[in-house]
Amino acid sequence: MKQLKPRVLKREARIKMQGNYGTLVIAALIVFGCTFLLNIVLTLLAPASTTLLSALLYLAGLLIVNTLYNVLSAGVSRLYLNLATDQPFSLRDLFYAFSTHPEPIAVYSAVSLAAEAGVLYVILILLAYGARHLGFQLLILLMLAALLVFLWFVLTFSCFLFLHARDPRKSAKELFRDCIHLMKGHRLALFWLSLTFFGVLVLCILSVIPIVIAGAMEASDVICGVCVGVLLVLVAFGVNIIIRVGMIKSSYDTILQEGEYSRKEKQAKKKLNTFSSAYWCFATAIYLGWSFWTMRWDFTWIVWPVAGVLFAAVSGIVRMIMGVDAE
After folding, report:
1. What is the dihedral of CA 153, 73, 111, 126, to 10 degrees?
2. What is the pLDDT of residues 144-170, one digit of tens each?
């Protein structure tokens, strides 16, 4: 199999996505919004007790949410696959897996959830008991080993949903076997490609991990100080990437009238301005009316995250109705 450099792959991806960013962004927001709302519902319905039955019920709910997320993600994979192969695509592709052999996706969701829960459980045990009975170096090595096993799983089966989108008639066993065969010798290349996309995530968000581990292990002040220095350095690099790349890309989009600065997107924004103003005024009215009626200001703030996530889905529907969706 021919391997292309990340720079070449990104250039080809930009060419394919030219003029189609609107559909892709709306699809991602719909998936995020649905998952966010389901997680809120799961959190509100989670039992307060810590019995074995309540834990099993919570895991069952988590499995349902994870399965729905993966079914929608399979739709996103199909959308990207159609885009890459110059086939017709639309937001309806998001929901194709609900009616086209979702069983392998359910199996994949259960296996991935078990892998995530297993690694998290091992790390928590090491943090809780390893600090007392193991040395600092040995504890770090064991945690790294657990993370490497999970990383191998993620890299090996990262193409599962794409393979299902290409041939949904295959069983879960066949798809797992195809993943192992396809990713043999290509895991490192995929890992490097992923780092080029998620460098900001690794640098900015995950930069707190060293100091969190040091605090959990009650490390000395010297080690905590070193961890703070590592955190600041990683954040500095991440912010530098955000500013440089963001400013350059925004300038290119403005000059070339691409993306959100294209003529079609500008016309779409003008048509949607009235809807956006009415939507947020309506959300504010609901928040104030509910808050003054119940005087539960400590609870009614939930209107804002729900309204923010719902706005993405409603905007996508309005764009399709008004005929301003980028195809």
Report:
1. 60
2. 888 888 888 888 888 888 888 888 888
